[in-house]
Please model this.
Amino acid sequence: MAKERRRAVLELLQRPGNARCADCGAPDPDWASYTLGVFICLSCSGIHRNIPQVSKVKSIRLDAWEEAQVEFMASHGNDAARDAYESKVPPFYYRPTSSDCQLLREQWIRAKYERLEFTHPEKQEPYSAGYREGSLWKRGRDNGQFLSRKFVLTEREGSLKYFNRNDAKEPKAVMKIEHLNATFQPAKIGHPHGLQITYLKDNSTRNIFVYHEDGKEIVDWFNALRAARFHYLQVAFPGASDADLVPKLSRNYLKEGYMEKTGPKQTEGFRKRWFTMDDRRLMYFKDPLDAFARGEVFIGSRESGYTVLDGLPPSTQGHHWPHGITIVTPERRFLLACETESEQRAWMEAFRKVVDRPMLPQEYAVEAHFKHKP
Model:
């Protein structure tokens, strides 16, 4: 009987919607919440264990199943749960995938099943109201210390500001929603709730690194920033659909990591730098947590004269790492070197994705600015 019940649960995975984790979309879920009626992956099952008042989990293959539990799973399933718990997810709200950090997945799961935010829209006020203020720990640009700073997001003014003191009249920085991006970077920042915010200052990228001890707070900030971007883009592109706008709300970097680089004359030695590929901007930093990039390279499309070559010119000297990459732009060549072959392959793939993508009209304006940079 126990085997038959387990087999019956396994067969439910063949039903539409059940072949992927209900929460992050990972394929072949091995676990189930027998109180919510959803099939989930191992990673998400660990988060469900932390909300036992709402969700109780079992292994589909290893645990014993009671008849009533099997019947409950059969009468529910992932599609039914989505209808019930995700009926009012705002279009701007970030739906995490299996590759996202633990924090985003945990807060998505808690928002759905514990706080019922997507069945009771009034609970979405912290990130839907168009205005948000509060304190975040911000990393100091020069000393690396995290200090509490007051942040104010206002959609009406189209900006995110922060103040060095709560009673300060003037903000230390004003970040325009138009050019703002936010991405969770727990490993880089050294805190599980670490958020990197970037914005353009004089058309150069500026980084700030923040966190909040409360996971819900920092994810609410993240979604409030996405909401502000969404509403800005709706005005900027009045004919665009939600599906067109949502991918533009925030972006993860295509690739990050250390490479060696040499200067424009290619006669000086190679130096190790931290590189970030953000859309068409390749930025390099002395340290991953620097506020400003040492330099930025625009990478356009093949049609505009950009290519990526495997290896370095034969005469190249001064690099310690053996696996070279040459980026050819209409103006010059950039010589880079990776420590391992697998890193080189990953960077080449990231660069080629960008080069193979036709340029958008607004990207030509960005390219022109790069060409006129001193």
Q: What stands out?
A: The chain is about 30% helix and 25% strand.
